[in-house]
């Protein structure tokens, strides 16, 4: 089986997302599309899957010309795509999600027979879920596994995975990789869109590198990693990583009430977390599916109290200065979710429209003023796009930058759920530059992550989650980086 991509070009306004791309991909070799965020990877796979119509170019499946811009044509030709944000029905059960919109089972389907077929596939691929579970109750990784099985049920022979592993636990990742290797050996075409070189080296046999919408080179795997980095970034990522802003320390303090989580000290009482410098960054780390993300959301929903110590002067004993706890107003909590298009942004709205929605003041919109504000934010946050581009046409990195750009300028409590999920090294560095810059004036920054290196690099205080339980709270100076992997796995130490 073979797919030939010929001279594919696609523009979004002034942005040239794909520029005359030529690639040939065969079965039995898992093929990676590599490149920084905004390189054109996701645009290309959306053209292959029929979600976008290119401005020019052709695609052939086994020498048969594909009707471009048609999802039905792509489906008929066995093309299935697994996006980094699952495209599913969250109010349906797992079984209902397989039946909805499927032509496989016909109009007069037998539910019992369908259950048997799905359970057989689940057993083969080691998925332990009840078919009656609602999709909304599943982690992103579990939803991705379900979606991959559903693609196979719909007879997809060309499987495209667009940054699929960002929501996986380690076990889910291993199971899916095992599954993809089996599919490839059976003659399926598997295309992996990724920037994670460790995954590409583990799974793929060849890769095509894209940069600014152009094909740079197709290479065999394994290949020299430093050369791949140079081809992907041309040295740009090193410049970003080395930029580390200094944070401003103040004498202010904040207090996080942890009674909801039942975190007790060795003496048996509930221990709050007191952060002694406003502007500090608090990292909440755990494996995918742990309570780390929920911790961020619960603060935003006011299910966890975060209070500031306010100094007041009591008119007794020589105007004695006291400290009182005061709640942080809800309007001063600024939250960005990890699933950027599901809960953070409106995919079908432009940057201009997002800026208009976020703006305060007159109910009458001056689009000239909004356009100027959008251009300023695009320049300040280095967003690759223009004021009239839709949010769903931006890369993941640029969507994240847009979320940050929309946060009010006034100081607040920054609550960031996996702020660099799915981002490449360069975009990660750029996002953290902005977060650190904001932390100088914000009350505090609290972020969740599954990345031990990230939590260690940027945090002043660290909260470790194993499953739904907090296993450690500490300033970074009072713990060892190497212990974090044991703490998030439910072990207190190597012993």
Short description:
Helices cover 32% and strands 24% of the residues. The chain contains 17 helices and 20 strands.
Task: Describe the protein.
- The strands form four sheets. A six-stranded mixed sheet has the order 6-7-8-3-9-10, with helices on both faces. It has a six-stranded mixed sheet with strand order 16-17-18-13-19-20, with helices on both faces. Strands 2-1-4-5 form a four-stranded antiparallel sheet, covered by helices on one side.
- β1 and β2 (15-26) form a beta hairpin.
- 40% of the residues are buried.
- It is globular and about 85 Å long.
- α12 (351-358) packs across α13 and α14 (396-405) runs parallel beside α15.
- The longest helix is centred in the middle third of the chain and has 16 residues, at 170-185.
- It folds into two domains: 2-234, Rossmann fold, CATH 3.40.50; 254-487, 3-Layer(aba) Sandwich (Rossmann fold), CATH 3.40.50.300.
- It is built from 17 helices and 20 strands.
- The protein is 32% helix and 24% strand.
Number of strands: 20
Average residue pLDDT:
83
What is the CATH H-level superfamily of the largest domain?
Answer: P-loop containing nucleotide triphosphate hydrolases
> How is the largest sheet built, in terms of strand order?
6-7-8-3-9-10
Number of domains: 2
Total number of helices: 17
* Distance separating the two termini: 51 Å
Low-confidence parts:
237-249, 264-270
- Give the overall silhouette: globular
- Category by helix and strand content: alpha/beta
Radius of gyration (CA) equals: 24 Å
Per CATH, the architecture of the largest domain is 3-Layer(aba) Sandwich
**β-sheet strand percentage:** 15-25%
For this structure, what is the CATH class of the largest domain? Alpha Beta
Major sheet characteristics: 6 strands, mixed
Q: What is the CATH T-level topology of the largest domain?
A: Rossmann fold
| DSSP helix fraction | 25-40%
């Amino acid at each position: 089986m073979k797919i030939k991509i010929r001279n594919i070009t696609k523009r979004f306004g002034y942005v040239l997302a794909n520029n005359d791309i030529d690639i040939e991909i065969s079965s039995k070799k898992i093929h990676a599309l590599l490149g920084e965020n905004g390189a054109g990877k996701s645009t290309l796979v959306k053209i292959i899957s029929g979600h976008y119509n290119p401005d020019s170019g052709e695609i052939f499946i086994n020498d048969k010309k594909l009707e471009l811009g048609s999802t039905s044509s792509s489906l008929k030709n066995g093309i299935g795509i697994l996006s980094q944000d699952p495209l599913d029905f969250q109010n349906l059960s797992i079984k209902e999600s397989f039946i909805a919109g499927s032509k496989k089972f016909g109009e007069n389907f037998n539910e019992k027979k369908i259950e048997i077929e799905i359970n057989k596939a689940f057993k083969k691929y080691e998925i332990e879920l009840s078919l009656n579970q609602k999709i909304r109750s599943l982690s992103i990784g579990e939803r991705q596994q379900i979606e991959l099985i559903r693609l196979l049920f719909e007879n997809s022979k060309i499987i495209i995975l667009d940054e699929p592993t960002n929501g996986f636990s380690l076990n889910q990742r291993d199971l899916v990789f095992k599954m993809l290797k089996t599919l490839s050996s059976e003659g399926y075409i598997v295309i992996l869109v990724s920037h994670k070189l460790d995954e590409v080296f583990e799974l793929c046999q060849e890769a095509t590198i894209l940069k600014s919408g152009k094909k740079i080179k197709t290479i065999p795997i394994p290949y020299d990693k430093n050369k791949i980095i140079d081809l992907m970034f041309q040295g740009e990522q090193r410049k970003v990583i080395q930029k580390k802003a200094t944070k401003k320390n103040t004498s202010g303090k904040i207090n996080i009430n942890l009674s909801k989580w039942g975190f007790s000290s060795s003496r048996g009482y509930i221990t709050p977390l007191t952060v002694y410098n406003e502007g500090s960054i608090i990292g909440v780390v755990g494996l995918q599916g742990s309570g780390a993300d929920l911790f961020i959301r619960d603060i935003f929903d006011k299910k966890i109290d975060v209070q500031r110590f306010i100094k007041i002067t009591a008119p007794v004993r020589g105007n004695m200065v006291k400290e009182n706890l005061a709640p942080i107003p809800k309007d001063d909590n600024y939250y960005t979710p990890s699933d950027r298009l599901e809960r953070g942004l409106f995919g079908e709205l432009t940057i201009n429209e997002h800026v208009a929605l976020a703006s305060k003041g007159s109910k009458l919109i001056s689009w000239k003023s909004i356009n100027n504000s959008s251009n300023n934010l695009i320049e300040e946050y280095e967003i690759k796009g223009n004021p009239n581009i839709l949010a769903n046409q931006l890369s993941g990195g640029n969507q994240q930058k847009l979320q940050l750009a929309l946060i009010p300028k006034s100081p607040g409590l920054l609550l960031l759920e996996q702020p660099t999920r799915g981002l490449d090294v360069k975009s990660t560095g750029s996002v953290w530059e902005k977060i650190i810059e904001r932390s100088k004036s914000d009350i505090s920054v609290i972020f969740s992550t599954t990345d031990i290196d990230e939590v260690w690099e940027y945090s002043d205080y660290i909260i470790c989650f194993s499953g739904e339980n907090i296993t450690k709270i500490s300033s970074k100076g009072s713990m060892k980086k190497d212990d974090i992997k044991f703490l998030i796995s439910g072990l207190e130490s190597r012993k």
